[in-house]
Write a structure and sequence with these properties.
Keywords: Dioxygenase, Iron, Metal-binding, Nucleus, Oxidoreductase. The protein is α+β, with helices and mostly antiparallel strands and about 280 residues long. Helices cover about 20% and strands about 25% of the residues.
């Protein structure tokens, strides 16, 4: 995929779901959400899952609602990356770092490619609270999903458009998602620019997606799996209602996500000299 190809994967967000400050064709708006199904092959997915499962237990950090691995180094409290070499199974086969750079999504970042990857494992019923990824990273995040689908809920700030001192004011988000994005296995979701900076994102802690959850999905036309696509279209269609809730659901299974970013501040200490390029 080339940067010229990327635009056709842009998601169209309803005007009433946009932050007020980027509505009405604001010339300052940039970036967006891009959903790319089948970004990796079935064989690549199986290989990645095998390599992740084979990682030693100390590599996993166990949290209350999921467990994760960190590759490429550790990000300090000062938003500086203490670098480590990426494993071959993220760099050479599959060549994910190169493939992501080739899309052009990191073209404006300092290193023009991701240098950090978080691998999260979500069991059915697990999720993550709505949040933003913070200032350590360039305003691009690339997430590849493995093994199962999920629904990513996108939220707006309740004080959208108002001047806020982030060091002294606790910001509130809207209670309900503005919209949602369904992420299939092997898909890539890119969030860039204003979409990265102006929204929050989270995954609800549930074991299945019901009609009410699927009705907010904005990328139904881009979904590749026919069974999933049919359920999303039914939930978003004119006949959606309580009758569908009894059977038209998607059951979650264990999902693994690979989230790539570019940490722009990198330590030049001894560890940096040991990193293989």
């Amino acid at each position: 995929m080339t940067p010229q190809d990327l635009e056709k994967y842009r998601l169209v967000i309803p005007d009433d779901a946009l932050p007020r400050s980027i509505r009405h064709g604001d010339e300052e708006a940039s970036g967006g959400f891009f959903y790319i199904p089948d970004f990796i092959s079935c064989d690549e997915e199986r290989y990645l899952l095998e390599k992740i499962e084979q990682c030693p237990k100390p590599k996993w950090k166990v949290l209350q609602n999921r467990r994760l691995q960190s590759w490429g180094g550790q990000v300090s409290s000062r938003n500086v990356l203490i670098p480590e070499a990426m494993p071959d199974w993220l760099v050479h086969y599959p060549p994910l770092v190169h493939r992501l750079a080739a899309t052009g999504c990191f073209a404006k970042s300092l290193h023009q490619r991701p240098n950090h990857c978080l691998i999260n494992e979500y069991l059915p019923g697990q999720g993550i609270m709505p949040h933003q990824d913070g200032g350590a990273y360039h305003a691009t995040v690339a997430t590849i999903s493995l093994a199962s689908h999920t629904v990513l809920d996108i939220y707006r700030w309740a004080d959208d458009g108002e001047a806020v001192d982030s060091q002294h004011t606790t910001r509130a988000r809207e209670c309900d998602p503005a919209f949602s994005i369904l992420q299939e296995p092997r898909s890539l979701l890119l969030t860039t620019g204003d979409a990265y900076r102006m929204y929050l994102h989270g995954i609800a802690e549930r074991t299945r997606e019901e009609t009410s959850h699927l009705s907010r999905v904005v990328n139904g036309s881009s979904v590749r799996d026919r069974a999933i696509k049919a359920k999303v279209q039914a939930a978003c269609g004119p006949n959606a209602g309580s009758d569908l809730d009894q059977y038209d659901v998607l059951i979650r299974e264990k999902r693994v996500s690979l989230t790539f970013r570019d940490v722009e501040k990198v330590s030049k200490g001894l560890n940096a000299l040991l990193v293989k390029h």
